[in-house]
Specification:
CATH class of the largest domain: Alpha Beta
Radius of gyration: 23 Å
Oligomer: single chain
Structural class: alpha+beta
CATH topology of the largest domain: Enterococcus faecalis V583 fold
Shape: globular
Number of strands: 18
Strand order of the largest sheet: 6-8-7-3-9
Distance between the termini: 43 Å
CATH architecture of the largest domain: Alpha-Beta Complex
Length: 471
Amino acid sequence: MIGLFSENLEIVNVGLTSFGDNIRKAGGRSLDLQWRPPADSDPEVGWKLATLINHPLVETANERAYQAYLSAQPVLEGVGIAGEELPGFNGRMILYSGPPISWEDMCGPVQGAIIGAILLEGWANDIKAARMLAKNGDVCFAPTHHHNAVGPMAGVISPSMPVWIVRNQEQGNRAYCNMNEGLGKVLRFGANGPDVIERLRWMTDVLGPVLKKVVEKLGGLELKPLMAQALHMGDEVHNRNVAASSLLLRKLIPTALEAGVSSADFAAVARFIADNDHFFLNLSMAACKAMLDAASGVPHSSMVTAMARNGVMFGIRLSGLGERWFTTRAPVVNGLYFPGYSLSDAAPDLGDSSITETAGLGGFAMAAAPAIVQFVGGTPHDAIAHSREMANITLGCNGAFTLPAFDFTATPAGIDVRRVVDTGIEPLINTGIAHKEAGIGQIGAGITSAPIACFNQAVAVLADELPSWFE
């Protein structure tokens, strides 16, 4: 021992960084490992996690769920009207993003968007009357995920809205999403003024019918190859969709010329898409939803099949635990704010668009989109580091989506709730930031993460429903 302490020590420090500081002050060398106890130091959850590690039922279930996700082939099958296409979507019903929440507990942007949807449907003539309808229970509300759908930010879908219809050719399930309105004062950020309603009516009367004809003539469009190509062109198909929107427009234009569409109408539609770099986002979300729904409902699987937020709560779903939600408070994003706005103006995180991260895109594929840091913050090096870190919490990589910055290595995909709780690494999400008051709109963008509390809850329930392999 005396000889040991007379040597130049090189120490690996697992624990508090201050331990390493003391070693360095004494002239030694210390490498600090970033480690913390699993399950946020909760011994009960930590033990339940231990019972899930290498559990044969979980491993078998995860292989089945993950292969279903990998083999899914989302195809743009058509465009329809929400009230006619979405399963179980009947009467005066409006869908919103994230886990279940009551009207009185909804955040400002979601309430504002619902009021706008009521006005769009003609159920009320003014904002005051629309608010009373919502408050008095004369309109039913439900999460989009409960109807095989997703929606960005407020996520609102009402019966007359046009929706994308995406079918997974491999397993046959369908997913739906509304259409992207563009930036500025839009319904998904809670705006509900006359210009917003007028745009939505144009989308119902012109955009939807034109795209319906074009997609029918096209005979379907495989979305995985298009998304993969967009990754190679600098998108991550969540907050950056410049390439994907352009690729989509290239597919639509020649077909529109053969589909008998009014030239004036398609000119307006083409201009609308060309002026909206985020247009493909909603289609990307529907594709990701279709892929993940293929993996849902596998008993005992620890694979995450949904992450979503409603501006109040953040929730996740697991393949092995069906349609149950595990929730905690949604974080407020400390990102890049537009001039005149700050963290104090922001609504908590909002929207279903984190379905892209759940599917291994968005924040998990930031290495493909270094330019996105100009929008959400950080550096290109950070974007690459984020993608590398996410590989620590996934079941594998999706060979259909590759990252040029990683020598075309596949994107990490298939979030494993066990690995999140074990490592303490929270799934990364890049996101837009809405003002906490309805109608002001987007005030910034940034990077956040899925709160680990959701994952701790899910691990505990999954463990309780499994026979212990120690017995």
